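Hi U.,

Before I forget, here's the chain from the pilot set. I'm dumping it here mostly so it's searchable later in email.
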Amino acid sequence: MEKYILLSMTCICLLGTSVAAMERFDIVTTHELQQMLEKRSQGDIDFLLVNTLDEIIFRHSAIPGSINLPWSQVSTNAAALGADKNKMIVTY
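Structure:
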């Protein structure tokens, strides 16, 4: 019983941390992203679209113009995000 309580408390703490961290980011809807992609193709805005799923999934279903950078590789491949620290990054 104590194991389940400890596991439950750990999950609650981790979930709370994740939710709190997401407050720093704006959520982009599918419709908004579609508009952003259209504006990017016209040269009106510039942003980096990053697919964070495994490479296998990326090869089979990715939004055109996105790059693949799985979460597990972000720390080792951060250079793929470019040198511009002010550039907007949209992840999915």
